[in-house]
């Protein structure tokens, strides 16, 4: 079947098998930040945004994304760099394997908090939002510190 999908503002038209997963479509087109960590919709590593909403691309058929706009980490380099510096300062990047999915979810969470007018989220709200992103190295304390500081930075949540 033919699909037309915009990825990071670039139009892509492709003929795909009906059972092609979105993660495989994205990697086929060179978006290698999208990685497979589990294949059971458990680790969050394959997170991308469809119309600004985070989804697990290992659990979505490409056909379902037909006509939509997808954002991957490659399309959020500037925002990712800013957050990445907070992660580095807090020692929240060890092997770095979880980082792409984690960064996508944090940036989506920030947008959602802004939409809902949440200017001072609690650790509990943050942890609930990110419960689908697994990290096998850090124990999450450094992640939480980095996120709290990132959201409170000058120009952060308003
Ligand atoms: S690869 Fe998609 S959730 Fe793990
Ligand atoms: S830093 Fe290694 S999995 Fe998160």
TrEMBL record:
Pfam families: Fer2, Fer2_2. InterPro entries: 2Fe-2S-bd, 2Fe-2S-bd_dom_sf, 2Fe-2S_ferredoxin-like_sf, 2Fe-2S_ferredoxin-type, 2Fe2S_fd_BS, Beta-grasp_dom_sf, Diverse_Oxidoreductases. Keywords: 2Fe-2S, Iron, Iron-sulfur, Metal-binding, Oxidoreductase. The keyword Oxidoreductase applies. Residues 1-76 form the 2Fe-2S ferredoxin-type domain. SUPFAM superfamilies: 2Fe-2S ferredoxin-like (SSF54292), CO dehydrogenase ISP C-domain like (SSF47741). One of its GO terms (molecular function) is metal ion binding. PROSITE patterns: 2FE2S_FER_1 (PS00197), 2FE2S_FER_2 (PS51085). Coiled coil: none annotated. The keyword Iron applies. This is 2Fe-2S iron-sulfur cluster binding domain-containing protein. It comes from Aminipila terrae.
